[in-house]
Amino acid sequence: MKILMINKFLYPKGGAETYMLKLGAYFSENGHQVQYFGMDHASRTVGNNRNAYVAEIDFHNSSRWTQLSYPFKIIYSVQARRQLRKILDDFSPDVCHLNNFHYQLTPSIILEIRKWERQTGRKCRIIYTAHDPQLVCPNHMCLNPNTHKICEKCVHGSFWNCVKNKCIHGSFSRSILGSAESSLWHGLKVYRQIDTIICCSHFIKNLLDTNPILAPKTVALHNFVEPVEYVSAEKKDYVLYFGRYSQEKGIATLVQAAKQLPEIPFVFAGAGPLERILDDVPNIQNVGFQSGEFLNKLIREARFTVLPSEWYENCPFSVLESLSLGTPVLGANIGGIPELIHGTGELFESGNSEELTYKLRKLWEDRARLAEYSAQCDVSQFDTLSAYAEKLVAHYRQ
Questions:
Q1: Topology of domain 239-381, per CATH?
Q2: Do 359 and 348 meet the contact criterion of CB atoms below 8 Å apart?
Q3: Which residue from 17, 80, 197, 318 has the least number of CB within 10 angstroms?
């Protein structure tokens, strides 16, 4: 089978990229032909035979002159359609698997895939994995950036609520573009042309199902867990957070709680815009972004990990990775997180610093309970990469 993986970033940047790259590598190793389409970037690790990509769009670090052209590119991209068509003509994929494509690639690529089908007589399935609520929320987080509170106004009403709250980077102009983008493509009913929408949690499925066009296409399928060789490890005296240092991840709330618990050592492994707030907190050790075996060791030896998210997490790999390495999780009771923690940790009210502080202290002092949670860290309830890929192939071939 010929599979074209489509994502705005073609290098290991976040969870969506981890998902796409691991799936693509697995399919390649098991006899499928896999190519990739997205933005060109110095860090790009995968590609396609035509060397056809979209020029990099960086909303945060480009010059003002360059940014002036972005409004003409992020709603509808002629370049993305042209570059994608080169790959379609050369590769003739059986399936195009979309991941994160809004703004940098735009939904116009869906139109190009269907146009190519009509003109060539080829059949190509379009599968989309919803890593977030982008299809029902222009800022893709259901989070008001001004209040830092969950917001579903666009989910249940007009996308122009995004403008009222300046939901995209706190910018009125960017929020107008985001609202226009969502209104245009939903108005044109372009998402009706997607064959199947893979939702990484039941929570996200229920959120997307509020839209009558999307509801018949959604399928809930938790992310895969890669089996790791079990290595018995003595737990060490620290609580681990690993991931992005950003507001929506609840970093500020976690740091506030850590300051109230000077007797508990914390290790933070990651990077992001709020890194500075970790400075001068004596019981926080910031080891920066980590991956591979060193990160596995940090997870395996932690008494427990904490995921204090304050947005609608879908199916975070950080929870799955912790459980696969025998480490309990203290997670925020939000989004898809509760679906993953069953007798393998505890939950607290998202954004509630007092309850988080209480739960951190309670777990830290109760080694017996932590041992029980560790013993229950059986990830057999989740698909392995191979089992997950088989389920995907079934959707590819429908």
A1: Rossmann fold (3.40.50)
A2: yes
A3: 17
